[in-house]
């Protein structure tokens, strides 16, 4: 029991001696930690202010919104690296050591995250060639639902906003390496509809009705050309087609309105639209 008490006393004495010898160093280290936290807080606020200033300044120049978002994302990463570099120097780490550490970390991360680097390179390609801009409606993979309005373009990822307000985040490497359909790249867009009528209905009368409908619609552009034609003689219907040019922003509005108008007018003038049906004959 006396030996245990003596050992405890010795440990306490050693700890007290350690504190006496290293108190200045511990105080200095504590001050550095506090200063680093303050610098990190102030630096983060300053970085946000700088990014806001740069974003507003670039916006006034008329630069593409996607390019502004990409540059601000890159600048944000760079400024935070410099901030961490400065905090490291506050702890007495030499510039050469920090530079070597960053270089080694960069190589290691680069080997581990080759996909991330390809996304960064893809973002640069998107910035240079501009296959789409913020606000454009694009289709990347319709089968998987990768389509929507471009919401923002960042260093490694592009975010789309779907029609039902889902955020679709796609790597820039995927976008730069795949086919992207930009539906809003042009001011005008061709609208095409196929309508089936029964073989008993007057085909020529139906064509005249369609021609008058697209001519009277306020959203169609007669100067760009209008066409009504017989597309196919199908098994149970004569398929008529129409092609007309409409402003891109009005595409769906005009399409829905034409469908409704065609159905109403065909019903009014006795043009029958066939539908699938099954006739069952009972033989006794």
Automatic annotation (TrEMBL):
Transmembrane segments: 26-47, 68-93, 99-129
Subcellular location, principal: membrane
Subcellular localization(s) per the UniProt record: Cell membrane
Domain Mechanosensitive ion channel MscS C-terminal residue range list: 192-273
Keywords, ordered alphabetically: Cell membrane, Membrane, Transmembrane, Transmembrane helix
One Pfam match: MS_channel_1st_1
InterPro entries xrefs: LSM_dom_sf, MS_channel_C, MSC_TM_helix, MscS_archaea/bacteria_type, MscS_beta-dom_sf, MscS_channel_2nd, MscS_channel_C_sf, MscS_channel_CS
PROSITE patterns reported for this sequence: UPF0003 (PS01246)
Membrane topology: Multi-pass membrane protein
Domain of life, source organism: Bacteria
Record keyword Transmembrane present: yes
Gene3D superfamilies per the UniProt record, alphabetical: 1.10.287.1260, 2.30.30.60, 3.30.70.100
Domain Mechanosensitive ion channel MscS span(s) in chain numbering: 117-184
Keyword Cell membrane among UniProt keywords: yes
Family indicated by similarity: Belongs to the MscS (TC 1.A.23) family.
This protein's name: Mechanosensitive ion channel
Source organism: Blautia ammoniilytica
């Amino acid at each position: 029991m006396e030996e245990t008490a003596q050992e405890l006393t010795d440990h306490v004495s050693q700890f007290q001696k350690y504190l006496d010898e290293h108190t200045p160093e511990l105080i200095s280290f504590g001050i550095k930690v506090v200063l680093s936290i303050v610098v990190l807080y102030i630096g983060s606020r300053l970085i946000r202010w700088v990014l806001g200033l740069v974003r507003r300044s670039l916006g006034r120049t008329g630069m593409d919104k996607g390019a502004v978002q990409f540059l601000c994302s890159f600048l944000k990463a760079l400024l935070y690296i410099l901030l961490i570099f400065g905090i490291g120097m506050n702890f007495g780490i030499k510039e050469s050591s920090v530079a070597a550490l960053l270089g080694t970390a960069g190589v290691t991360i680069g080997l581990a995250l080759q996909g991330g680097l390809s996304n960064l390179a893809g973002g640069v390609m998107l910035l240079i060639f501009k296959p789409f801009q913020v606000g454009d409606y694009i289709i990347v993979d319709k089968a998987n639902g990768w389509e929507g309005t471009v919401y923002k373009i960042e260093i490694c990822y592009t975010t789309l906003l779907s029609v039902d307000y889902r955020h679709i985040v796609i790597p820039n490497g995927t976008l730069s390496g795949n086919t992207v359909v930009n539906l809003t790249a042009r001011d005008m867009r061709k609208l095409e509809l196929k309508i089936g009528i029964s073989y008993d209905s007057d085909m020529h009368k139906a064509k005249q009705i369609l021609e008058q409908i697209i001519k009277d619609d306020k959203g169609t552009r007669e100067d760009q050309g209008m066409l009504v034609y017989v597309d196919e003689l199908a098994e149970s219907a004569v398929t008529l087609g129409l092609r007309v040019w409409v402003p891109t922003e009005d595409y769906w509005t005009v399409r829905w309105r034409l469908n409704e108008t065609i159905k109403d007018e065909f019903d009014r003038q006795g043009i029958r639209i066939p539908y699938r049906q099954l006739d069952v004959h009972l033989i006794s």
